[in-house]
Each structure stands twice: as C-alpha cells, then as structure tokens.
C-alpha cells in the first residue's frame, strides 16, 4: 500500500490590513482551521484546536495577562493587567494560551500547534 502526503505549501490567506495589532483572523485551509494573530507587529498562526479538550481555542477572547502586583515585602497589592502579554482564552473551558508562544502560561506542556506564517507585499501567507 502506498500512502501520499501533501508537501507543505504556502497559502495566501489575507491582506495585511485584515489583521490589526492585537487582532486575529480565523481561516480554513482545507480541513484545517487556523487562528492568525498579530501582537507586537509579529504574526503567529495556530491550529484552532485547544490542547486541553479540543475546543476552538483561537476563537476565544483575547485578553491581557493578569498578574499579581507585589510590594517590596512581597505582599499582594491586587491584580494588574500586563500589557506585554496577550492571551487567547478557549471558549469551552477558559484554558489560556499566550499569543506570542502558543503555550499555556502555567502548563507549558500544553500548547497550540503552530504553523509558519509570513507577510510580504501586503499579503499574509501560512504554510500548511
């Protein structure tokens, strides 16, 4: 029996202006659904499947990471939003992933499957 696999190919998915800073676009390429995010001017593409329980992770809310603010004595001063870390939250069970890495902040063994993404000539291409 012979099996064939498709070679990876770059697919034009959108114009650069379709994904603003801190924004996202969800696209289907064949049987694969991807979320493409822009954060700090960089694009990241992830399969829209939560590593926790298979939900549509890339379609969840995009939020700033919440951190605990500590004083010099390491006492809590409450919670603050971290402008330098954006997360996408799976709508099924609230499992979070850092947009820049695709990893869960507390369980780095849980991560979204990433795909190469490039931008040139005003177009965005993902290699699948």
Automatic annotation (TrEMBL):
One of its GO terms (molecular function) is metal ion binding. Gene3D superfamilies: Rieske [2Fe-2S] iron-sulphur domain. Keywords: 2Fe-2S, Iron, Iron-sulfur, Metal-binding. Residues 11-126 form the Rieske domain. The keyword Iron applies. It comes from the Bacteria. The keyword Mitochondrion does not apply. InterPro entries: Rieske_2Fe-2S, Rieske_2Fe-2S_sf. PANTHER family: 3-PHENYLPROPIONATE_CINNAMIC ACID DIOXYGENASE FERREDOXIN SUBUNIT, FERREDOXIN-RELATED. This is Nitrite reductase/ring-hydroxylating ferredoxin subunit.
